[in-house]
Amino acid sequence: GEALWAAGLAVVRRLREAGFEAFLVGGCVRDRLLRRAVHDIDIATSALPEEVMSTFARTLPTGLQHGTVTVMENGVPFEVTTYRHETGYSDGRRPDEVTFVRDIREDLARRDFTMNAIAVGFEGETIDPFGGERDLSAGLIRCVGDADSRFGEDALRMLRAVRFAAVLDFRLALSTWRGIKRQRERLKHVAMERVAAEWDKLMASDKPDRGAALLIRSGLLANVKDPLPDTLASVKPDAIDIRWHCVKECRLSEADDIDVRWAAFLSAAGCGADEAEQLCRKLRLSSQRTKRISGVIGFDRLWSDRLMAVAGSAGKKAFDETANEQANAVQLSSLRASWVKLALRFGRSTAEDWLKMTKCRPVAYSLLAYAKDWTNEISVWKAAELAVRGDELSRSLAKAPGPWIAELLNELLELVALDRLGNDSESLLAAARAQMDGGNAS
Ligand code: ATP
Ligand code: MG
């Protein structure tokens, strides 16, 4: 962080020596003032892109149409952008035109929030025309200028505001919050990929619960371009909505993994596996993430059903330490069998993701220690790990190959995983014969 900042100042100095103005700006200044890690450096300069390119030995023309040149110093990239202003956001998305301007203050005026509109010069001098430092120390996110018009220009800023609230654990200035509530319908102009990128950063933050609650309370979630599944879009931030209650009680930060957080959030909001999958697709999340998130939710639904079936109306409080030991033992072995079958069906990683997801729930899960043991005790996860192959079954049972082989292998797999059968060919073949006889008899 320190070295990166110093290297950024060196780039600023070079530009100054070449006769231009230059400042560190944006996120790096904000994070530096907050003593947070600085990841990348943005520099604003009076130099035109071609002038920047002739000042440094190694440059990349990354965004010439926006005035941006990437300067490479010792393999580290620095984004250097000519002072500019943006005009006429007729579609609420992208400026119609980028104009270069002469003064750093004009450049700062186009930026979204006061905390992101502070410039730092080579000697450490600060240019802060909008009270950014004051808002930073108060922990406030405030638009530069009039909130309604700034959100009208670029609706993504509303989502950035909520994301920064979660990442920095800041509050929104009242005028900014009201602006979001008035302009939220404009979010319909923003592409779903960009919505997803902000939402993902929010979920990865230190305060994902705060962020998720703000997404709902602001009404932003209900106004994205591609309508969300009804279940999610209809969560109402008021005391009588049970799903709002669940979302608020959720402790997403207890899970380290972002996709587990997504699953916990969506399931608290009442989404089933299909709805979760639909949402992930709309957000253009990768198919791997989509499968993972909806898989955990599918697992959760089925497991809750099994728990209900075994434990009756006691529901999720299935196992009662004080109840009669024998009854408990019967319940437990039946629950274990259900658990192992589900785990085999969904795969180890889904079962483990589900275990992580329970940490996000407000109530400690009484069966957690059991379910962990049950999972760790599973010695085989796939039919291929059995000591018998399909063709051997077919030969030994003198039965033509068919779909019965996969079914039988799966039954054997469950028995081995439950420690009811040894994983050697003799035991497996014997069990196969017994299973087929039983099957024929019934
Ligand atoms: P982070 O990199 O942590 O996401 P950041 O503030 O650096 O935060 P960037 O997207 O890297 O965000 O943008 C750099 C700077 O550009 C911001 O600090 C802000 O000054 C300005 N900026 C970015 N997006 C917008 C926007 N949509 N409207 C106005 N200004 C913006
Ligand atoms: Mg940045």
UniProtKB/TrEMBL annotation:
Q: What residue stretches are annotated with the tRNA nucleotidyltransferase/poly(A) polymerase RNA and SrmB- binding domain? A: 169-224
- This protein's record includes keyword Nucleotide-binding: yes
Read off the InterPro entries from this record.
Bact_CCA-adding_enz_type3_sf, CCA-adding_enz_C, NT_sf, PolA_pol_head_dom, PolyA_RNA-bd
Q: Alphabetically list the UniProt keywords.
A: Magnesium, Metal-binding, Nucleotide-binding, Nucleotidyltransferase, RNA-binding, Transferase, tRNA processing
Q: What class of enzyme is it?
A: transferase
Gene Ontology molecular function: any one: CCA tRNA nucleotidyltransferase activity
Q: Which cofactor does it need?
A: Mg(2+)
Q: Give the GO biological process terms.
A: tRNA processing
- Positions of the CCA-adding enzyme C-terminal domain: 260-432
Entry EC no(s)? 2.7.7.72
**Pfam families tied to this protein:** PolyA_pol, PolyA_pol_RNAbd, tRNA_NucTran2_2
Similarity field = Belongs to the tRNA nucleotidyltransferase/poly(A) polymerase family.
Name this polypeptide is given: CCA tRNA nucleotidyltransferase
Q: Which organism is it from?
A: Cohnella faecalis
